[in-house]
Design a protein that fits this description.
The chain is α/β, with parallel strands linked by helices. Helix content is about 20%, strand content about 15%.
Length: about 375
C-alpha cells in the first residue's frame, strides 16, 4: 500500500513504493557502497529515557539529544584527551556505549534519517526533487507523528533543517515543512543551520529563531548563548509535561560553524573553540540528566559493537511507546530494544549500512523498471 494519493509526485511515490528490497533504479547517478565504520557514539543521537512517570505508567518519556558535526572521539568516554565531558562520561558509564553506531554525515540527511526511520534517498520530497539537505514531503510520517499518535506530547528545541524556503512565509520558510506541521506540538529553534561559514560576518546569511510559528529573533548575529538558551527552554518544557508522556528532540546547533560558547565556557577548553562548544553541550546534558534518567533498564557499564543506526530509533521508540510504526512504507530502521536492553544473545538486525556516495539526479529520471 502506498502512502501517497494520486496528486503526489510520481517519483516521490516510486522512491517509497519501489524500494522494498533495493534502491530505486530511476536515479542512475547514485552509487551505493556498503558498510564503513565511521560513526558514532550515542552523543550523535543520544537517547535518555526519563523515570519521572515510570512508576505510574509503563511507557517511558523519551529525549533525543542530537549534536551537529561532532566527531567520534570528541568525548572523554570515547578517547578525547583535550575535551572534558564528565556528564556524558557518567552517562556512558551508567548505560550502554554503541561503538558501531552509524549516522548520515551532514545536517539535513542525518535529521531525515532520524525522523523517518529510512535512508534519506527513500524519503519523498516536495517538487519531485532530491535535495542535498532532505526536505521530507508533508505526507511523510515523522518520529514525532508516530509518538503523538500514542498520546505523547512532542517538542523540538534546536535545529530543524528539514524545511524548504518560502519568501512569503513567516521567517521565509515553508509552513508545511516546519516542525508544527510534522508532528511537533512545540518548536523553539532555527529552521535551518546557523550558517555556512566560520564567522557569522563572512556571509550575508543570518538565521532566525522561531518560537512555534513566531519569529522571535529575526537574525542571529552571535551564537555564544545558543546552547544555554536551548537548555533553559528544554528544562522548562520538560517540567510542563509532568502529567504527560513526552518526546523531546533537543537538537543542538553546535558544534556546527559558526561556533559559539557562553562566557562560562569560552576559552576554557584545551580543545580550543570547538572544544568549548562540546564542553558546554556536556554541561547542558548534565542539566537535563538531573531530571531525566532511566536506570535499571539499560544495563550500566556495558558496550555493544553490534551495528545500529539512527534510523533504528523510530521503530524502537514506537515499540516502547506502544505506538504503531508505519506499515505502509519501507523503514530501514529496526527495533533494537533487545540490543539496548543488553540481552546476551542480542544481535544486530542489519546486514550492512549503506552510504549514498553521490546525490541522485533532480528531478528524478523516468521510471526504468523496478529495482526489486
Amino acid at each position: 500500500m502506498d502512502l501517497r494519493d494520486a496528486s503526489t509526485p510520481d517519483c516521490a511515490r516510486r522512491i517509497r513504493h519501489r524500494c522494498a528490497t533495493g534502491f530505486p533504479s530511476t536515479c542512475n547517478s547514485m552509487t551505493i557502497y556498503s558498510i564503513l565504520r565511521f560513526a558514532c557514539a550515542l552523543i550523535l543521537a543520544m537517547v535518555v529515557w526519563t523515570n519521572t512517570l515510570i512508576a505510574a505508567a509503563p511507557r517511558p518519556n523519551i529525549i533525543v539529544i542530537f549534536t551537529d558535526d561532532q566527531g567520534y572521539q570528541d568525548l572523554g568516554s570515547f578517547g578525547s584527551k583535550t575535551i572534558k565531558t564528565p556528564h556524558l562520561d557518567r552517562m556512558a558509564a551508567g548505560g550502554m556505549m554503541l561503538t558501531s553506531f552509524y549516522a548520515q554525515p551532514v545536517c539535513g540527511v542525518s535529521r531525515a534519517a532520524l525522523m523517518t526511520g529510512s535512508y534519506p534517498i527513500r524519503v519523498g520530497e516536495p517538487g519531485n526533487l532530491k535535495r542535498l539537505h532532505t526536505v521530507p514531503h508533508p505526507d511523510e510520517l515523522t518520529m514525532a507523528e508516530v509518538l503523538k499518535s500514542a498520546g505523547y506530547a512532542t517538542g523540538i528545541i534546536g535545529k530543524w533543517h528539514l524545511c524548504d524556503r518560502d519568501p512569503k512565509a513567516p521567517g521565509g520558510y515553508e509552513v508545511a515543512t516546519m516542525p508544527l506541521a510534522q508532528g511537533f506540538d512545540f518548536f523553539y529553534g532555527t529552521p535551518w543551520y546557523n550558517g555556512p561559514s566560520v564567522r557569522v560576518t563572512d556571509v550575508p546569511f543570518r538565521s532566525p529563531i522561531f518560537r512555534n510559528r513566531e519569529v522571535v529573533v529575526p537574525a542571529v548575529e552571535n551564537w555564544d548563548t545558543i546552547t544555554a538558551d536551548y537548555t533553559r527552554e528544554a528544562i522548562a518544557w520538560i517540567k510542563q509535561q509532568r502529567s504527560n508522556p513526552f518526546f523531546l528532540y533537543l537538537a543542538h546547533n553546535m558544534p556546527h560553524v559558526p561556533l559559539g560558547a557562553s562566557k562560562n565556557f569560552a576559552g576554557k577548553s584545551a580543545g580550543g573553540p570547538y572544544g568549548d562548544t562540546i564542553e558546554e553541550i556536556d554541561w547542558s546534558s548534565g542539566e537535563i540528566f538531573k531530571i531525566a534518567r532511566y536506570p535499571k533498564v539499560i544495563p550500566a557499564g556495558t558496550a555493544s559493537d553490534e551495528l545500529a543506526t539512527q534510523m533504528d530509533f523510530l521503530p524502537t521508540f514506537a515499540a516502547l511507546a506502544g505506538a504503531n510504526a508505519p506499515a505502509d512504507r519501507v523503514l530501514d530502521g529496526r527495533n533494537i530494544r533487545s540490543l539496548l536492553g543488553g540481552a546476551a544473545d542480542a544481535r544486530t538486525p542489519h546486514e550492512a549500512f549503506s552510504i549514498i556516495r553521490k546525490m541522485p539526479c533532480a528531478p528524478c529520471a523516468p521510471d526504468r523498471g523496478s529495482s526489486s
